[in-house]
Design a protein that fits this description.
The protein is α+β, with helices and mostly antiparallel strands. The chain has 8 helices and 21 strands. The strands form 4 sheets. It has a 5-stranded mixed barrel.
């Protein structure tokens, strides 16, 4: 049901103007208030009292869909995270995580503190259901009841939220990880209350490396620190999971160092692209082509975007700053990806500095001479590349951190790829 339909239904029940009701609903929905909670709030504003909606149905978790309306479910609390949001101009703390029963698990958001903790078995009555990232989510609000169960609900899922970085997925809430801080940077951003300082960087454990953001900078988060982070949530950042710390995240220094995986997982291009994005991955394949926009380029001094003919898409006419870059088509026989080399890596494959590239372009009176030299060096050769992969509607791009010629036996690797393709065909 669309907002217009909800507004028309409410306006009819309350005997008020539909447009006013619609504005009230949209104002609440923009703050991620569940639709049923928003409707209750609008009813109270106009003196309508309870919604009078149908009684909630009792369901197993696996039966719940975004169209289930209001439900009652008995489940085990897997995780509880806390986060503050801005709601109608005021700060409000919500609780979020996952519940499970023998049939499956489901995310929830609680708009007040019902007193349950991970491991508790509860019956949640009259919870509304909404769709979040394509999946149903329970919303526990003023009209929801929560009762503790004496008999534990047996589930196959781990309770408490402990996780490795590799197992984290966008949308996870109330997770706990033990990590080493590899990189950290303090930045000032335009937050909801004006300029705000945050920390961002990279954390790692024995399974993976991921970006992180600390929205309420903790003193313990320093480069090289080994930490236990309790109560983090996970968002998607450039196609990969990103670990987020809030004011409710507990940060505890560890007495023992965290084992960190030094190498990146090696995948075929098809596997990497099929993952939807990876923060740190290694690929081996051949450079087929150096794309336009490589070699000696100009960037906008304001935003760093590549400019064409002195024009930036965001800032119009600008005085461009010279830079070096490579964008190359990379193929391993399973799929292709565009690998992007920054200035330092480009200097390595070019065999010269930015100043030397500018001088070569002046002598030839053509910037393309730099691109041609790079293409002659790398096209048709096999390389090992490592970096961060993002996949979107425009294709797959790997922001490269390592780029070196492969010393592997090409025939042996080709045989492994053919065998892998054969196994997939047999499995199909």
């Amino acid at each position: 049901m669309q907002v217009d339909d909800h507004a028309e239904e409410l306006a009819s029940d309350l005997g008020v103007d539909k447009e006013e009701v619609k504005r009230d609903l949209q104002n609440l929905l923009q703050y991620s208030v569940p639709i049923e909670e928003a409707k209750q709030s609008v009813r109270r504003k106009h003196g309508g009292g309870s919604s009078g909606s149908a009684a909630p149905s009792t369901k197993d978790v696996a039966e719940i869909t975004p169209e289930s309306g209001n439900v009652t479910v008995t489940a085990r609390v897997l995780t509880v995270g806390r986060r503050s949001i801005r709601y109608q101009g005021e700060e409000r703390v919500i609780r979020e995580g996952e519940l499970a029963d023998p049939t499956g698990k489901i995310s929830y958001t609680a708009w007040q503190d019902f007193g349950f903790e991970p491991g508790d078995s509860i019956t949640v009555g009259n919870a509304s259901v909404r769709e979040w990232d394509g999946e149903p989510e329970l919303n526990l609000g003023e009209s929801t009841s929560v009762a503790m169960e004496s008999d534990p609900v047996e589930v196959e899922y781990p309770v408490g939220g402990d996780s490795t970085l590799l197992d984290l997925e966008p949308g996870d809430r109330g997770r706990n990880v033990e990590v080493r801080v590899l990189e950290v940077e303090r930045r000032t951003i335009d937050g909801r209350d004006g300029e705000t300082e945050i920390l961002s960087g990279v954390v790692a454990d024995g399974t993976a490396r991921l970006p992180f953001t600390d929205w309420n900078p903790h003193d313990e988060v320093t480069e090289g620190a080994d930490l236990r982070l309790e109560g983090v949530y996970v968002r998607e950042f450039r196609g990969v999971p990103s670990v987020n710390l809030s004011e409710f995240t507990t940060v505890t220094p560890l007495s023992e160092p965290v084992d960190v995986r030094e190498s990146a997982p090696r995948l075929s291009v098809a596997e990497a692209v099929g993952s939807g994005g990876m923060f740190d991955v290694e690929l081996v394949g051949n450079v087929l082509e150096v794309r336009d926009g490589s070699g000696l380029i100009e960037r906008c001094p304001e935003c760093g975007r590549v400019i064409q003919n002195g024009q930036c898409r965001s800032h119009g006419a600008v005085e461009g700053e010279d830079d070096l870059r490579v964008k190359a088509i990379f193929d391993d026989g399973t799929d292709t990806v565009t690998v992007v080399l920054d200035a330092d890596l480009t200097e390595e494959v070019y065999g010269g500095t930015l100043s030397e590239a500018k001088e070569a372009a002046r002598e030839a009176m053509d910037k393309e001479v730099v691109t041609d030299d790079i293409a002659e060096t790398i096209v048709g050769r096999e390389f090992r590349v490592r970096g961060n992969l993002s996949v979107d509607e425009y294709g797959a791009n790997l922001d490269t951190t390592e780029f070196e010629e492969s010393d592997e036996d090409a025939a042996e690797r080709a045989g492994e790829l053919l065998a892998a393709v054969g196994d997939r065909e047999v499995g199909a």
